[in-house]
Amino acid sequence: MLDAVFHKLSFIQINTVKFDRTSELRPKASPFVAILVIVPRERLFDVKEAVNLYERIEAENIQDLCDQLGNLDENVTGATEDISSIRCDIDELKQAVQGLEETLERQQEALSSCMEEQLLNLRAQRAETSLIRIQQELAAKFGRHVEIRKVLMGILQSMDLGIVRREAVTEISEQYILKMPGYWLAPCLVALAKWITDEPEAAGRAVQEAMRRNREKTVLLFTLICHRAGRQGAVLPWLRLYLEMQDESKLDHKAIIFLNAYACGLLGRDSENVIARLLDQWMERLQAQPGMEDKQDMAWKKILSAIGKPLLPTGDYEYLRKFCHAWLQLEDVMRGAMWHKAVYQHLQRIFDCQSNSSDIAGQLDDILEQLVTEPEVEEAALQQKAIKAQAVAEYREVDRRIPKNKSNLVRKNFLQLMTEAVSAPYDTQADIATQKIFIAMSKEPMQRAYASLVARNRSRIPDSIGMKFPMFQSSTKDGADEEAIIADFTMRNDEERAEAKALYVLSRKEMIFQYLGILPLVLGCYLLGIWGMVIGGVCGAAMTYTKWYLPYRAKVEKCQQLDAEYDEKANQAETLIRAFCAEVVDFRTAFAASDAESSQVAEFLSALSPAQSMIVLPEMGRRVQLRNGGGGIA
Questions:
Q1: How far is residue 126's CA from residue 132's CA, in Å, rounded to a whole number?
Q2: Which one of 122, 131, 355, 613 is least enclosed by Cβ atoms within 10 Å?
Q3: How far apart are CA 472 and CA 486, in angstroms?
């Protein structure tokens, strides 16, 4: 059917083309108008039929296309609904999986908590069992140690009060020497009892046995007991034995306390310098080590440098502050010279300060109590295990760390102890008396360090002090060349003045107009007579005024202005130079005066002596008081 329609339409088009070729008229209407013109009447019905057929076919095709699009729309809508349904199913599945994961995680946490709780309970049960076993072992091995410690501390306290009986002390000491054959404190208790009951031979044998078991602790114990009993004559021999057993390169915190007591005179008067010679031997052995002398000098330089340099008053040396480019160096040098007085005053304060012997006596008592109550190595290890087991059993802490006093474990050499006692007395618990002795013993390295610091400060003072003004730069050594500096500036200022004024000298052309004004006057008189002379004179005067007098006057005024400026500049420079040189003189004088005070420090250090720094106290202490007779510790 479509082929028939296209055949008719093509026939009509062919006729239309033929018409266009034969006709001279060019139709401007649509092709249908042309068709009506050229198509015969018998063909008109065929055209109509063809057009109607085409429209029907087109309508049918459009309807089919609309039906297909409608079906496609329904299919797309159905697919969209299916996708939405699938998404809802996926969301529900995700929620279900998430809920399952949360449930699984809670179950895992509950299981882990349960397992951890069971593990902690098991550890706590094992810790309780271990704690019982350790406590039994402590009671079996060291139970009597605790008893004898309590007894010894009770005897010492009873001796202070005078309520102990001689017989009671003897009976108790003899019981424990039989019950504890290996513990060092048992023969010490016997020796103490024999001294109290005036049995020196038995006391000596007990001391020998105690020293055989633990020599250092025995010597330390009787040193402290003699001090506590007020037997200063017996303290020094025991102290000498204790210090002889110490390694001067590894001293603990007790060393500084004993040295405090020695310096304060609490341990008796070292009339034969036994302890002093021992300390000197320590120093000699340490100083003999390679590089130790340099380390000691550096340490004392650091200590002396820590004494702050005084500040200069704000109003001093105003011109030096403003016009000397090396003022910061000069200020530091002056402060270094003033520092000598600060060092001298610091040393004076140390040696004028009084010691507090009561605090040191309390520290010695603390050492005595710690020594008596301190457990042995094996016992301390078991106690640590018991503390950890108890922590696990009570608090279920798997790793409970017991804090230790690390300051008591730190060991230092004697020279380091000396410098730290002077520089940080609060940290080292060094008494003021100990600082005095240590400064006196270290006067040689201290003198070397001080001399080095003095020489370094003197070397930094410049030979000449530079001045830098806005209009001039120069330098002076001591301010005495003030006039020469002013003359030099005056010469340079005059040269600059002459160069500046040379720019304002009249040129040759301007100088010609000074005499050229006469020419119109002469010509006017010659040509026109008297009126010509008048006219010529006016013209000449005008030319001379404008071409010579005005430039001349302007340059003269400029030169006068330059003279005033350079004169003012010279006056200002002279004032600044004189003020600067005067302050240089004052600075040199003040530096010399402050630097001369270093001799006071040097004389002070040279006069120091450890023996003179010792504090001698009268015999004092707590006497041993007994009922029904008594004795003393020899």
A1: 10
A2: 122
A3: 10
Euclidean distance between CA atoms 182 and 145, whole angstroms = 10
Please state the pTM of the whole predicted model: 0.66
- Whole-angstrom distance between the N-terminal and C-terminal Cα of the chain? 151
* Both tokens assigned to 85: 């349904």
Residues 186 and 221: their CA atoms lie apart, in Å, by 12
339 Cβ contact partners less than 8 Å away, ≥ 6 residues apart: 307, 309, 310, 457
Select from 490, 252, 213, 488 the least CA-distant residue to 367: 252
User: Residue for token digits 């202490």?
Assistant: 621
CA pair distance 544, 546, nearest whole angstrom = 6
Write down the pLDDT at residue 94.
85
In whole angstroms, give the CA distance from residue 171 to residue 183. 18
Task: Identify residue 346 by its one-letter amino acid code.
Answer: H
All residues at 6 or more sequence positions from 331 whose CB lies less than 8 Å from its CB, including other chains: 312
Cα 411 to Cα 223, 252, 416: the distances in Å are: 21, 5, 10
DSSP 142-179: HHHHHHHHHHHHHHHHHHHHT-EEHHHHHHHHHHHHHH
Q: In angstroms, what CA-CA distances link 20 with 15, 35, 211?
A: 9, 11, 150
pLDDT one-digit tens code per residue, 455-510: 999 999 888 898 888 888 888 888 888 888 888 888 888 888 888 777 766 655 55
Kind and range of the H or E run holding 627 = strand 626-627
